[in-house]
Specification:
This protein has 179 residues and is mainly α. It has a single domain (2-162), classed as Helix Hairpins (Orthogonal Bundle), CATH 1.10.287. Helices cover 91% and strands 0% of the residues. α2 runs antiparallel to α3. The protein is rod-shaped and about 90 Å long. The relative contact order is 0.08.
């Protein structure tokens, strides 16, 4: 059970606050989105390749059927190849339409993927801003830096005042330097 508790603690440590949750969500969403876009393109191209292979097979079958038709002189034998030629021609036309639709889908998908990934860069910016917010919150130097910025402003205001008082009275200058 101790091993299970140790694996649970890092998970809860990563998502301690809403900032951590937002960071995990943006990173996870970005990864899944990129994977989904890539997989959609692979699947679409595979379907298009399959349609291309079917188109080539039908084209070869149609060419073979057309070549074998004129050699037959028997009326019964000639009727069967013409039906096959008509069926193959219809199937080829249908397949050509499907192939054209698939090609258009692949083009549109590629455009959508580019636009999606461009828009998803906003998730990277959110992740960066969340990381900076977490770092700023967790950094012990963050409050000191803001306090350090206001302190020099006060000292800068004092320096001109000291410089003015030193220039007016020469007795104060040796007393300050001996201290």
């Amino acid at each position: 059970m101790t091993g299970t508790n140790n694996t649970e603690d890092p998970k809860t440590a990563r998502v301690q606050t809403p900032l951590h949750l937002l960071q995990v969500l943006t990173r996870t969403l970005n990864e899944h989105l990129a994977d989904a876009c890539e997989q959609a393109q692979v699947d679409a191209k595979a379907a298009l390749d399959n349609l291309e292979r079917e188109h080539n097979v039908l084209t070869e079958q149609l060419a073979t059927a057309q070549q074998s038709q004129p050699t037959t002189t028997d009326g019964d034998s000639a009727a069967q190849p013409s039906i096959t030629i008509d069926e193959l021609t219809t199937a080829l036309a249908t397949l050509t339409q499907s192939r054209n639709a698939a090609q258009e889908y692949v083009r549109q998908l590629q455009s959508d993927v580019r636009q999606t990934l461009r828009l998803a860069k906003g998730l990277d910016r959110i992740d960066l801003q969340v990381s900076q917010a977490i770092e700023k919150r967790n950094s012990p130097d963050a409050p000191a830096k803001s306090g350090g910025r206001s302190a020099p402003r006060r000292s800068r205001n004092r320096k001109p005042a000291n410089a003015q008082s030193n220039s007016h009275t020469s007795d104060n200058a040796p007393a300050v330097s001996t201290d």
